Amino acid sequence: MSRMQLLHTCLEKNVPFFSYRLPSAENYVVGIQSVSDVEAVSCFDALNLDCKGFVVAPFLFGSGESAFFLKEDFRVESDAVPEELLVYLASLPKGKVEEETWPSAITHDVYRERVEQLIESIRRGEAQKVVFSRNILSPLDESFDFGSVY
């Protein structure tokens, strides 16, 4: 199984995962969590620094918005997927993301207000660079292939 097939399987079975490539690296890393519940954390102090994993956090983390910690139970750095991971994935049924778990979209006005806050943070010297994004929710046909888009 290739790493791309692995990502497709994780999406198909609703398994939490993360993937990244360091700037000078040729290959990307895939980390997979073996339980479906992703841990929400309210501030960096709440993170368990003894666990390997990946944090997905909002820009204003710690001001009431939670971040999410995906634990690295399995690590895949090549197309040689560990047998233990293959057995685990084979034991899982196909999953389905329920609409209530989707992140909510923000209005254009709220988005604009947050961008202005970020610009002010840069002007005050609190940040040198920021990446701001938003969710755009759109219905998808059941044949949509998340793995090929990723």
Tell me what you see in this structure:
By secondary structure, this protein is of the alpha+beta class. Helix content is 25%, strand content 15%. It is built from 4 helices and 6 strands. It has helices at 3-12, 83-90, 108-123, 146-149; strands at residues 17-20, 29-32, 39-41, 53-56, 67-71, 74-76. A 3-stranded antiparallel sheet has the order 1-2-6, with helices on one face. Strands 3-5-4 form a 3-stranded antiparallel sheet, with no helix packed on it. The longest helix is centred in the last third of the chain and has 16 residues, at 108-123. The radius of gyration is 18 Å and the shape is globular. The chain starts with a helix and ends with a helix. The mean pLDDT is 81.
Q: Beta fraction of the residues?
A: 15-25%
What helical percentage do the residues reach?
25-40%
How does the overall form come out from the CA principal axes?
Answer: globular
Low-confidence stretches: none
Task: Please work out how many helical segments DSSP would assign.
Answer: 4
Report strand order across the widest sheet: 1-2-6
Mean pLDDT: 81
Distance between the termini: 16 Å
Instruction: State the total count of DSSP E strands.
Output: 6
The largest β sheet comes out as: 3 strands, antiparallel
Radius of gyration: 18 Å
Secondary structure category: alpha+beta
Helices and strands, in N-to-C order?
A: HEEEEEEHHH
Tell me the layout of helices and strands:
Blueprint: H1 3-12, E1 17-20, E2 29-32, E3 39-41, E4 53-56, E5 67-71, E6 74-76, H2 83-90, H3 108-123, H4 146-149
